[in-house]
Amino acid sequence: MGFPGPFHGADTDNCGTGRIHAPGLVLCEAEHVTEYVYRQPRTTEELRQLVDAAETEAFCRYGCDGDTHWTPEAVREWWRDRGRRRQAGGRRHSNDGQWPWAPG
C-alpha cells in the first residue's frame, strides 16, 4: 500500500528504522509488521532521509523502481480509492512511533 512514485518499501523487517530516519515519509503497517513509503520525497533532505532508511533496513527491501510498475491507469485507480485506503490505514498503521505490539 505504497504511494505512487519511484520509492517504495515491501516486506521490510520493521525494526523501526524507516520511522527513525524518514519520519515524514515512512509509516509502519501493523497487520503485516512492515514499513512502507507513504509520501514521496520532495526535497534533497527528504531524499537523503529516505536513502538513510533504506540503507539501514536489514532485508534491503526498499526500492526506487516504482515508476516502472505504476501505469497511468494504476495511479488513477490509486487516487480514486485513496479515501478507502485512508480509512483502512487509520486502523492499521502507526505514525506516532508507538508500535502496536509494544507493551502499554
Describe this structure in words.
The chain is α+β, with helices and mostly antiparallel strands and 104 residues long. The protein contains four helices and five strands; from the N terminus they run E-H-E-E-H-E-H-H-E. The longest helix has 13 residues, at 44-56. Strand 2 (26-29) and strand 3 (34-37) form a beta hairpin.
Task: Summarize, please.
Helices cover 37% and strands 13% of the residues.
Descriptors for this entry?
4 helices; disordered C terminus; 5 strands; about 100 residues; three-stranded antiparallel β-sheet
Topology:
Elements: E1 8-9, H1 17-21, E2 26-29, E3 34-37, H2 44-56, E4 62-63, H3 72-80, H4 82-92, E5 93-94
Antiparallel strand pairs: 1-4, 2-3, 2-5
Q: What general form does the structure show?
A: globular
Structural class: alpha+beta
Average pLDDT number: 78
Number of distinct helices: 4
**Unreliable sequence segments:** 90-104
* Radius of gyration, CA atoms, in whole angstroms: 13 Å
Along the chain, the helix and strand elements come as EHEEHEHHE
Strand content: 5-15%
> Distance between termini?
27 Å
Largest sheet: 3 strands, antiparallel
Helix share bin: 25-40%
Strand order of the largest sheet: 3-2-5
Number of strands: 5
